[in-house]
Amino acid sequence: MMSKFSSLSPAQQEAVLNGAALNPPKGYTSNFDDPPNREAATNAFFFLCLALATLAVFGRLYCRWILLKQYSLPDFLFIAGYALLIADIALVYRMAPVPVMFVHLWNIRQRDFIIYLRSVFITSEVYLFNITFIKVAILLDWIHIFMPRGTRNFLFWAASIAIFVNVGFYIGIIVANQVACTPYEYAWNKLIDGNCGRANTLDATVAAGAFNIVSDVVILLIPQRVVWKLHMPRQKKFGISIVFALGLLAVTTAILRFVSSLKHAKSPDFTYDFSEILITGCAELTCGILVGCVPSLPKVFASANMNGIKHKLSKSRLWSSFSSSQKRSSPRSMHSRPPSLELVPRGRAGLFHKLDYQATGFSESSTDSHIPVISGRIYQTTEFHTTETCGPSTFEH
User: Fold this and answer.
1) Burial of 165 (C-beta count, 10 Å sphere; 0-12/13-18/19+)
2) Distance between CA atoms of 26 and 28, rounded to whole angstroms?
3) What does the pLDDT look like over 171-226, one tens digit per residue?
4) How far apart are CA 229 and CA 240, in angstroms?
5) Do the beta carbons of residue 139 and residue 216 sit within 8 Å?
6) Which of 32, 267, 327, 389 has its CA 20 to 30 A from that of 277?
7) Which residues pair with 350 in a beta bridge?
8) Where do the structural domains in the chain lie, given as residue ranges?
9) What element of type H or E holds 21?
10) What pTM did the predictor assign?
11) Using one digit for the tens of pLDDT, what is the confidence trace for 295-333?
12) Cβ of 69: how many Cβ atoms within 10 Å?
């Protein structure tokens, strides 16, 4: 009947548009006015995802742009991903003039279902762009954090190949969805004459779900080998791995989305089953943002705590008198100051020369009587590399 919709009379067309999009099962009656749904619960979930993503993204930007004065491509990719997440949630919030989240298709009119399918088509493309931006940003972060400039090792090549594969795959899925149907409107309006013979969009959705799981696992594993080879205490290594373990949440949500895609592909109850895909997809995008941005939050909180402590101390008389005495007792001569770190910039990483105090002499005017006076010599230096980031930091002695 759908293929002959254009041949129906106006009254018959109106009857089809006002009828149920799916015949109800035996024993059920369509309820268009107030169907059972979970709109309130799903809206609360989407709000939670948006709140977590907002905290994570703005925390990262504050850390990198305000505290460290650093700007990088992943920052802007996360901003793009965050903006698309907002757009995705907004689309889901108003997918149709009637409630659709966990609403059975036989409780939705055909005219509302057409509007809903158009929103599904748009939000699916937004999701693909968003997941691409987020995954590329995370992989670029891995290269930035763990790779000194000019180095080409396993992590660099693994991350670079993963970026290439992810971008190529998702662009391919986006293009397939765009060219699948003729005419273009047939992608969401099955009442008009047309076909989707160029590509099977349901198969593309399932393929994207399987690919998400594999790529999430790869992104999670790429930095682990480097992390456990860092020269730092085992407890700190474990802490960094816990941060990366946030990626397990992304893998879990990707698996759940894949299962929902398989269920959706075999079910005629489109609206009810696609609701699960929308929820798990939003959770997956949020987890991806958390993986890339949460490592910045401890530095933000530490900065806030230090500023608060300094503010309180600055108001105390004890701190004021201590600062004044320090200023009066500090000679202005260069010879009275202990040696400090001398920085020789070299790209992102810096080359530092640390003077070992116990083997360094000062002039006779030095107020530090416990340090031996050995004029004009440095007996020992220690060279080390350090990189300051808003995420897991690297240190190589």
Assistant:
1) middle
2) 6
3) 999 999 999 999 999 999 999 989 998 888 888 888 899 999 999 999 988 887 77
4) 12
5) no
6) 32
7) 345, 386
8) 2-26+36-301, 335-397
9) none
10) 0.76
11) 877 777 777 666 655 555 555 554 455 555 555 555 544
12) 7
